[in-house]
């Protein structure tokens, strides 16, 4: 590096420092993985990145992912890393793989498969099980080099199963001895470097065998034991997902408020608009606002668009996957399956059969054709009622099932049906916008690494900046960037990243905002054993740097793997 003052200089970009401050035209210099200087006319770097006419931001921090398995078998945390994410928190929703006795491995896999739609053969093949305790799990993660940094939460469900065994699966109350052991396990995990603890209290979270998550009915004292473990360790936060479709949730949050008011531990809960009780989210938002005003730190984590499923012939599910005839051809290669489905007699049989008879998709019976839409290319995340399968069928004097069938066969069998189930009451994203405008909310819920066969929301950062900031101009660019950087980093307790300032991590994005876009979803068979997942190519990210090394250029990986496990307490 003779004659070069810095390792890397990102030259001449419009620099947004991540705090929400107005941008400045400046250079960003990095040395030893840290930001060495931000200013105009900096000295040369061994590597120069031309950012003229482009936006320069801190790397994005995603607080809600499920890369717990993928981090074991892969060094690329895609799709999140394709969307400018340089640090991700995993272990959310109370599910994970540690602590775990050998006899409980299948149970945790079944739970992860049911809750997060990661196929069990993929996990059986990819997980090495070189651990039993949570600190041992972190040690295994620590051996790996990746394209982003990862942080972990201690998940409540494995802790409960580890302590209570079959009693946990039967949803029995924990004893005093159980809770004392859970408290100790949580504290040990946090001392080993976990950022916090997560739990789930929703009936939507079920194992692949249909059993509820073991944490569903944990009583207040048990939740308190988790929080006490955080207090014992001296750091950490609580993350939870709970029931959002009944009025009982208000009692649930009153309990949560009692627990948190005793400890002041930072707490985050997932908040979306539920279709069956579309106004309840606002009551919960008010609850959080009121708690925060009284010094009780309970923040909602929200999504920037409808949360919905993609149904297709190569996706995990489609509207006809439960029929007897489709099941007989389901394992054929796509082209052969499409050829069969185009045969009049096969079409007639599939359309005449009960789609729920052999279905493994518990939500299928709850999705009317009025809430199914051709996804289209360019993709349409905001369809109107006139775009529904039911509306198209009425216009064409056909049965809705016929229209859905034809959509699946489009483009050689790659056609997709979109069905939004949260955040889209009366075909409006008004709730999303109101949630995003609330200063107490945290941007998240992309679920990178999970729901690999029918949900593709890891691109939420790209959507926030392209749709809400660029296209709708609902927020200034500096605010959109703040919500993805300093705000999420601060929420996770990561004080060394999320801002472009001297001494902080050299995690940087160089972005062509006008070109930001996520392409049409496609299926890749790149998981262990050739397992499938939905992906989409991304444009607009000219460069992404992690720890001062360029990991992506123009959306293509460089092969650099500077990402590591980040342990709380500066143990990274």
TrEMBL record:
An annotated Gene Ontology molecular function: hydrolase activity, acting on carbon-nitrogen (but not peptide) bonds, in cyclic amides
Entries under Pfam families matching the protein: Amidohydro_3
GO CC, any one term: cytosol
Domain Amidohydrolase: 47-552
Gene3D superfamilies in the record: Metal-dependent hydrolases
Signal sequence coordinates: none
SUPFAM superfamilies: Composite domain of metallo-dependent hydrolases, Metallo-dependent hydrolases
Protein's name according to its UniProt entry: N-acyl-D-aspartate/D-glutamate deacylase
Organism name: Sphaerisporangium rubeum
């Amino acid at each position: 590096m003779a004659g070069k003052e810095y390792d890397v200089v990102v030259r001449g970009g419009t620099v947004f420092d991540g705090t929400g401050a107005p941008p400045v035209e400046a250079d960003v210099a990095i040395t030893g993985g840290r930001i060495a200087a931000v200013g105009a006319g900096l000295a040369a770097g061994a590597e120069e990145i031309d950012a003229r006419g482009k936006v320069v931001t801190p790397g994005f921090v995603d607080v809600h992912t499920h890369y717990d398995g993928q981090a074991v078998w892969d060094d690329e945390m895609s799709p999140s890393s394709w969307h400018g994410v340089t640090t991700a928190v995993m272990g959310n929703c109370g599910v994970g793989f540690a602590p775990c006795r050998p006899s409980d491995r299948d149970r945790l896999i079944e739970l992860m498969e049911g809750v997060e739609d990661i196929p069990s053969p993929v996990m059986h093949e990819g997980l090495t099980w070189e651990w039993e305790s949570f600190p041992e799990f972190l040690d295994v993660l620590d051996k790996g080099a990746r394209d982003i940094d990862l942080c972990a939460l201690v998940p409540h469900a494995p802790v409960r199963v580890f302590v209570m065994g079959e009693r946990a699966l039967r949803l029995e109350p924990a004893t005093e001895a159980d809770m004392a052991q859970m408290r100790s396990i949580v504290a040990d995990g946090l001392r080993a470097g976990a950022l916090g603890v997560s739990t789930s209290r929703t009936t939507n979270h079920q194992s692949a065998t249909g059993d509820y998550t073991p944490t569903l009915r944990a009583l207040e004292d048990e939740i308190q034991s988790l929080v006490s473990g955080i207090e014992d360790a001296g750091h950490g936060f609580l993350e939870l997902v709970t029931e959002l479709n009944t009025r009982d949730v208000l009692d649930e949050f009153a309990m949560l408020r009692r627990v948190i008011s005793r400890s002041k531990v930072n707490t985050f809960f997932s908040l979306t608009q539920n279709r069956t009780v579309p106004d309840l989210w606002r009551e919960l938002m008010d609850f959080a606002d009121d708690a925060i005003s009284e010094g009780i730190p309970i923040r909602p984590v929200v999504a920037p668009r409808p949360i919905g499923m993609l149904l297709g012939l190569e996706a995990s599910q489609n509207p006809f996957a439960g029929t007897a005839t489709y099941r007989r051809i389901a394992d054929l290669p796509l082209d052969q399956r499409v050829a069969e489905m185009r045969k009049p007699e096969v079409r007639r049989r599939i359309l005449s059969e009960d789609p729920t008879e052999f279905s493994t998709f518990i939500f299928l019976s709850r999705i009317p054709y009025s809430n199914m839409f051709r996804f289209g290319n360019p993709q349409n995340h905001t369809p109107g009622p006139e775009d529904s399968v039911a509306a198209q069928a009425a216009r064409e004097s056909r049965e809705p099932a016929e229209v859905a069938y034809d959509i699946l066969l489009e483009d050689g069998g790659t056609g997709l049906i979109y069905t939004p189930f949260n955040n889209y009451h009366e075909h409006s994203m008004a709730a999303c916008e109101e949630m995003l405008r609330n200063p107490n909310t945290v941007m998240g819920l992309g679920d990178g690494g999970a729901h690999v066969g029918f949900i593709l929301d890891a691109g939420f950062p790209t959507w926030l900046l392209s749709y809400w900031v660029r296209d709708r101009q609902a927020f200034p660019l500096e605010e959109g960037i703040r919500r993805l950087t300093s705000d999420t980093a601060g929420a996770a307790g990561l004080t060394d990243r999320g801002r472009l300032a001297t001494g902080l991590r050299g995690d940087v994005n160089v972005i062509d905002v006008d070109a930001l876009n996520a392409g049409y979803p496609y299926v890749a068979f790149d998981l262990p054993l050739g397992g499938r997942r939905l992906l989409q190519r991304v444009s607009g990210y000219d460069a992404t740097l992690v720890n001062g090394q360029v990991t992506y250029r123009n959306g293509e990986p460089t092969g650099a793997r500077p990402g590591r496990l980040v342990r709380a307490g500066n143990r990274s």
